Amino acid sequence: SRSTAGRSVGRVAPSPVAPSPVAPRPVELPVELPVAPAVVPVGTGTGEQR
Question: What segment(s) does the record annotate as region Disordered (predicted)?
Answer without folding.
Answer: 1-25
